[in-house]
Specification:
Blueprint (H helix, E strand, L loop, with lengths): L8 H17 L5 H13 L3 H4 L13 H10 L5 H20 L1 H7 L11 H13 L7 H12 L1 H20 L11
């Protein structure tokens, strides 16, 4: 699965947009939280990353309910269960923050997620992921706890990120930056 390198222009774009949206629109100056969210956006550039979790038969998990069920099948202790819950929170936040219209559309489809509340499941997943006691993961656990506690604020912030990148995309290119003729 491709993930852009640290200095890739897309990572810098997401970092700048996320920092600007959270500081300017929300008044949230929290570098670890903003870094986590911009890294999540960079990870999810490739859609395969959104559906990277597999079920016990090796098929991609594309529904949040299926991710939750698979997470509960894993041993209670251990990093894998934590990673499933963390990813589930990330996916719920990604869709409800950047593409809330997708969440509304799913509610009208014949799938397991049609009755799902993305916010509730995302908050729960982040809370569960944050509870794993491992000193190496303490800093990330604090961020995951905050994402669970402030899920709605973070989703709103990601909607602001989307609004900003849509505005940015509509700006004309500077002279000399057009397509090669």
């Amino acid at each position: 699965m491709w993930e852009p390198p640290t200095e890739h222009p897309l990572r810098r774009l997401f970092s700048g947009l996320t920092e600007h949206a959270f500081q300017t629109s929300l008044g949230v100056a929290d570098p670890p939280l903003v870094d986590y969210l911009s890294d999540m956006l960079s990870r999810f550039i490739h859609f395969d990353a959104v559906n990277r979790l597999k079920n016990s038969h090796g098929a991609p998990l594309t529904e949040l309910t299926a991710m939750a069920v698979e997470a509960e099948k894993l041993p209670a202790e251990g990093r894998t269960r934590r990673e499933y819950h963390k990813h589930l929170g990330d996916v719920a936040l990604f869709w409800s923050g950047l593409f809330p219209e997708h969440c509304h559309r799913i509610q009208n489809l014949p799938c397991k997620d049609h009755m799902l509340q993305f916010t509730w499941l995302g908050k729960r997943a982040y809370r569960l992921a944050s509870e794993y006691a491992d000193d190496r993961l303490a800093a990330e656990s604090r961020i995951l706890r905050r994402l669970g506690d402030e899920f709605e604020l973070c989703a709103y912030g990601l909607r602001e990120v989307r609004r900003e990148w849509e505005e940015w995309a509509m700006q004309p290119l500077p002279p000399g930056c057009g397509l090669i003729k």
